[in-house]
Specification:
Length: 245
């Protein structure tokens, strides 16, 4: 019961925390750096995924689950301690709390020793964003409009299609060990191939973070999504062919 309850509670907490950190990373940096900082969550995620997957191999801590869990608890405690030193985001303090003084302090913490002119410019930018968000605040009527307006409906369908192009790769990324074992690969190769995939994912996150504000979103998305579709198709074909041999 404790295991099941813990998994359920941690699933909810993970979803809330992950979305919170995404907003955090988008709200505290200067506008021109938001694309890069938004990528940082993926970079850190892939790094720790590699660490945990590597530790979970038989050669390291795969056969010693209590020790493996203890290591992860240590990493989580360290993350919590580091997070305690963080200040609330300037945008939240300014728009939601209406505390301009605290927002200025937050900007100084996150942006470094900025001059007053730069801080005031960022404050005005945040105020403008806040007013625009209030004017375009979402409601149930807005949700209905998405389905009734042809242009918005097309945009939503394109967005769903774009997400669907990326999501299938997660199946192979996190279940690659089981898939390779099912294809009669050795446990050693299966586990370390999965770790190698996470390394490639980490490299891709670094590369994407570097290019996102230089090349553009669409320019990166279309070629990479096409590669994903081709690779997923090839992997799926290999999986079925392996059972015919």
């Amino acid at each position: 019961n404790m295991i099941h309850s813990g998994r359920l509670a941690s699933s909810i907490a993970t979803a809330v925390a992950f979305q919170s950190i995404i907003l955090y990373l988008q709200e505290f940096p200067p506008t021109e750096k938001r694309g890069t900082t938004s990528y940082m969550s993926d970079v850190v995620f892939s790094l720790f995924a590699f660490i945990c997957m590597s530790l979970g191999t038989k050669e390291l801590l795969g056969d010693r689950l209590p020790v493996l869990m203890t290591v992860q608890i240590g990493l989580c405690v360290l993350s919590c301690c580091l997070t305690l030193r963080l200040h609330e985001s300037p945008k939240f303090l300014l728009i939601n709390i209406n505390d301009e003084s605290a927002a200025r302090d937050s900007i100084r913490i996150f942006h470094g020793d900025k001059d007053d002119e730069s801080i005031e410019a960022f404050i005005e930018e945040l105020k403008k964003e806040g007013h625009e968000e209030i004017e375009h605040a979402s409601s149930m009527k807005d949700v209905i409009t998405i389905f009734t307006e042809p242009a918005l409906r097309k945009t939503m369908l394109l967005g769903l299609a774009a997400v669907q192009m990326v999501v299938p790769m997660w199946t192979f990324l996190f279940n690659s060990t089981d898939l390779l074992l099912d294809m009669n690969a050795s446990k050693f190769i299966s586990q370390w191939t999965s770790s190698a995939m996470i390394v490639c994912y980490f490299i891709g996150s670094l590369l994407g973070g570097y290019l996102i504000d230089r090349v553009g979103r669409r320019t990166l998305f279309i070629p990479c999504s096409s590669i994903i579709v081709i690779c997923v198709g090839a992997i799926s074909l290999s999986f079925y062919l392996s059972h015919l041999v």
